[in-house]
Amino acid sequence: MAFLIRTIDFTAAGREIIRDRVVEQTRLTVGRAVENDIHLPDLAVEQRHVGIDLAADGTLKVAALGTLGFGLDGRVVTEGVIDPRTGGEVALGAARLAVTREGNGNIAITIRQVVADEGKMDALRGFALASKLPSKRAMSWVFASAIILLLLALPVASHLLRTPAKPDPTGKTPGTVLMDSAWTSGELSLKHHDLADNCESCHVAAFESVQDETCLSCHKDIGDHATKPRLAKGMAPLSDGDALQWKIAQGFGKEGPLGCVACHSEHEGPVRTQAGSEAFCGDCHKDLDARLTDTALANAHDFGKTHPQFRPLYFASFGAAKPVRAAAGTKPVERSGLVFPHDVHMNPRGGAARMAVSLAQYRAPLECKDCHAATPDRVTFKEVEMEQACEGCHSLVSGRTAGGALSKLRHGSVKNLAEDLARISTGPRPRLAPGRQRPGQLGSASPYRADFGRPVRAYIGTSNALSTGGVCTECHLPTTGPTGQADLMPVNFPERFLTSGYFSHAAHTKQKCTDCHAADTSKAASDLLMPDLKSCRDCHLGASAVKTAKIVPSDCAMCHAYHVPAGQWQGLKPPKGPAPHYKPAPPPKTTVAAKVAQARP
Amino acid sequence: MASQAKTGGTGRFSQDERRRDSDHVSFLKHKGFRWLWIALAISGASIAGYLLIDQEPRPNGGTWYGYTLGTIGFGLILWLSLLGVRKRRINPGAWSLKAWTSAHVYLGLALAVVGTLHTGFQIGWNVHTLAYVLMLLVIITGIYGVIVYATLPASLSANRKEMTRAQMLDALTAIDRQLESAAQPLARAEADLVIAALGQDVFYGGALARLTGSYPGCKTARALRGMGGATEAEARVTALLEKRREQLAQIRGALRIRALLEIWLFIHIPLTIALIAALTAHVISVFYYW
Prior knowledge:
Largest interface: A-B, 64 and 70 residues
Radius of gyration of chain B: 28 Å
Number of domains of chain B: 2
Strand content of chain B: under 5%
Oligomer: heterodimer
Number of strands of chain A: 20
Distance between the termini of chain B: 68 Å
Number of helices of chain B: 12
Helix content of chain A: 10-25%
């Protein structure tokens, strides 16, 4: 076996010169010194650098002769083995010695000079991930500009250049500012949900907090808790922290603690504004008279402890034009114009009960609901109608019609009564005798006089009915009209008795009527059967009371609203789920407000 | 002298020892976890305030406490993003880069608490939540970065087997030269396989290939599959191709570890800039539509 040493050089012109020589030995030395078998004139190579030994198994042992290593297949080592069948490459300075096996079994060592690889450091950059990804700087620019353009510049520009859209609570008019939906800080409340696409309805001017004026442009009819100056005067002094906060907020254009948005915080999700707590009301009302010295309102803060006595509305004199409010703690005498002893009607063993039992429509002693019908929402009661409630017993039947049915007097006006009574003695009557009549029989005993003469009988009938002991005075008080004619006292009841709070009968169905209204012992219609504060407190105590089977902790909002104190506080409970106290929707705020304004003396 | 160093002498040697000791303390443990404790204090105070202060009608970024947390968070974000500026300023002064990095990591974690409380847990499809999500992504990639910086460098040097990157490439070049001459006797089809393998860039493959270490289009692997072992030349080329594949595997192992080490910065940095943009839009929009 021999080594074939092949040297490849290049001339200046680039032509390749190949020199082959065969060395018949099993050991080769490589180095800079000329006595080496392979002489490499390169300063980076040692004088005697590497020894190559042919082992018995045909492999080559390559070992450094000094301390300096050499490159073997790219790796720097001081010794190594090359199997000529697969080959190997030894690097010494700029020379590369490629070892291969020739077909005849000789081992060829091809020596080639390589030029220094100047691109090597560039190639190393390929190891960095940056070579495969867009640059961080470029990505930063793209992301940041996209966000600034789309989410800031576009809405601001379109807000500055727009024709403002009108507020539209029906939700049909979208806003004209582009992309401002991305600015919303949360869903709007249930009541404002339709404004979600029209941010400018509320956010009118840039960098300006939502103004009361804007709220009131839709909520024109909202009741005022009190006028602003009185609110400000009656308001409890702010704590130092709150005062500082409001000072800062007002410095930035907020409208202060009496502005709409101070309580009506929006973008809190699809909910309704929660009612103020007892503490919220108590802040001002627990010592209101200290600040608002001329107020008619008594202090209140805890229903169980501090709450003024009820002052129901009632008619203090017969036929009065307007009701008045009872003075606190008095026992008012109601002049409704009716005669009605509740006790007689409610006595289960009395005459009224016996009569009711005998009548098909009752078949039992009278109960409250036989006369007092609840309104459809079961919050309060309809007016008592004579025809429905009373006529079963207090009959107004006056005779029979031609068809044989019962005729009756109409209820409700004295004029109708007079007409109905006049008709009783007229109208077709059966003849007294068959056959012909003799002439001249138009005397006082004949029907002619009754038919064509003065209606004396009708006058008497009307007079009898209206005077004491007559059919009308069973329930009504007799009086005389402006011209001295017989008349009845008009019946007067206020539409609501308690006008400064809200009460639902539907929420109290577990109670008997007489638990609160002392009707079973009331002997006269002049008793005002409204319950007093004490009877409410049997069950209702302040918000801080402990809830038991009997005691209901009650905050102010259970009976009072803020904007319209007589109305129910909207959104007191979430719309879902049972809320027996508040379930029936109250009449529209504006109507109640108007009615209360009318009803108040 | 060593005992003097331990007892804290004032000599040159003990000073140097202290410096050397501190040089080898991880930025995570800097000054006895000083910034960890500060971050925990900030987080604890924020959570306590959130729980104790009753905001009507509900916690919200627009309450006074919300504004306070928001201002702290805003300041933190701007300061944290300044690490990139700080590390490029190699000038003397009382601002240790290690202390700064330590604070960056721990205050960044505290920012997650402050920012989350600032939201009042009100999340939606809007610029505010965009800023919050970007902030979380930046923090999460940062946490990933700390973890890989602590764990991966060891496997990176294990993979090197005492070779530099340049040597890895040299080794491949050496194998390639041998392949070139060994392939001379091959037939056309086999020669084409070798040409394809030699022609493929050593850094072939995208970022995903680097991260997973999966190179389905590797021409060297394909050449190996297509190379028969019938002739001696083919056997030799196969042996060389196997060497090439092993060398490539080592390079690709280094690439994978390096990619895992570096990938988070490609999210962390651009998203930080995007976050600052979103934060600007968030703050301006809130007061624009106040």
